[in-house]
From TrEMBL:
Pfam families in the record: LRR_At1g61320_AtMIF1
Protein name stated in the entry: At1g61320/AtMIF1 LRR domain-containing protein
Domain At1g61320/AtMIF1 LRR, first and last residues per copy: 6-281
InterPro entries found in the cross-reference section: At1g61320/At1g61330-like, LRR_At1g61320_AtMIF1, LRR_dom_sf
Top-level taxon in the UniProt lineage: Eukaryota
């Protein structure tokens, strides 16, 4: 490292494979030409007087321990930063993103509050909360929807978990959707619970508020027959005659079992998307409550806004080690 400190190092990766956390080498903080930094399983503690990496473009931290104030200072002194990934790092009570040149942002971890203060160039956001919930977040007076999306007008791709949906709906849904949703073309919602009417309402609002949405991916939490929640079914039935996903072309659904709540959600999708071309669904055979053919036949009976949707259902047998695919 001492040798490297005398060179114009632009890319540096440190991946620690030992059990205990490894302190990031102090010579790292002398790399003033650094553009790409990737750290994994280590402690990040800059020395006093550290002025950041002013040429840094890409920062990737995985299971890195740091003082949240140090992280905030690092970000504020990286004016050229375009890509930021934080995965399973130190809990950050208040997560604020104020990076003018940021284009890609991924956060997987725990936090109490999320806000984007300044992200005019941000095109892709991936966010998931570990443990499914924000840490002890209290319900705000006003909706979190506009607060979350207000400062990212260039957003094209959004990948969020069900816990983020729970956070967004706190304070209620705004009458008018945030303008940041106007350009989203790809939406991925993972670990979504159909047992929670508020989460389902938030998902429906988000899907129908993206007028340029083309690709939608959904992943449902595993449910059982006894999990059917009548308010959710009623909510989805009320939405099934509405429109909104006017440019949606492709839908992929993971962990689909065929229960009533899931079928009603598909009915809503089919009724909302006049140019829909393809629906791809998959799950493990073990978790299916009905056959692939039966589910596809039922979906084809729904009143769809698009007449020529192709249904593909992939069934994976974990015990037998084979895949079965139905096309209709």
């Amino acid at each position: 490292m001492h040798f490297l400190s005398k060179k114009n190092v632009q890319e540096f990766t440190l991946i620690v494979r030992i059990g205990n956390k490894y302190h990031s080498p102090h010579h790292l903080f002398t790399f003033q030409q650094l553009r790409c930094l990737e750290l994994q399983d280590c402690l990040f503690h800059p020395p006093l007087g550290f002025n950041g990496f002013e040429k840094l473009i890409n920062l990737d931290l995985v299971r890195v321990t740091f003082d949240p104030s140090i992280f905030t200072n690092l970000i504020s002194k990286s004016p050229l930063l375009e890509r930021l990934r934080l995965r399973c790092c130190t809990n950050i009570d208040i997560l604020e993103i104020d990076v003018a040149n940021l284009k890609f942002y991924e956060f997987i971890g725990k936090t109490k509050s999320i806000s984007f203060k300044n992200a005019p160039m941000l095109e892709k956001v991936t966010m998931a909360i570990l443990g499914r919930r924000l840490l002890n977040d209290t319900s705000p007076v006003c909706s979190n929807f506009p607060k979350f999306f207000h400062y990212m007008p260039s957003l094209l791709e959004l990948d969020i978990s069900g816990a983020i949906l729970e956070y967004l709906i706190k304070g209620g849904l705004p009458e008018g959707p945030p303008t940041a949703l106007n350009n989203i073309k790809s939406l991925n919602i993972s670990s979504m619970s159909l047992r929670n009417a508020e989460v389902v309402s938030s998902a429906v609002y988000l899907i129908t508020s993206c007028p340029k949405l083309q690709d939608l991916t959904l992943e449902f939490y595993q449910v059982s027959v006894g999990d059917i929640v009548e308010p959710v079914v009623e909510l989805l039935r009320a939405q099934s005659s509405s429109s909104g996903a006017v440019k949606l072309q492709r839908v992929k659904v993971n962990m689909f079992t065929g229960l009533e709540m899931e079928m009603e959600f598909m009915k809503f999708i089919l009724a909302s998307a006049p140019v829909l071309e393809e629906i791809f669904i998959w799950n493990c055979t073990l978790y299916l409550f009905r056959s692939c053919k039966q589910m596809i036949d039922d979906m084809k009976e729904f009143r769809g806004a698009s007449p020529n949707v192709k249904f593909t259902f992939e069934e994976i047998d974990m015990e037998g080690g084979y895949e079965h695919e139905e096309d209709m």
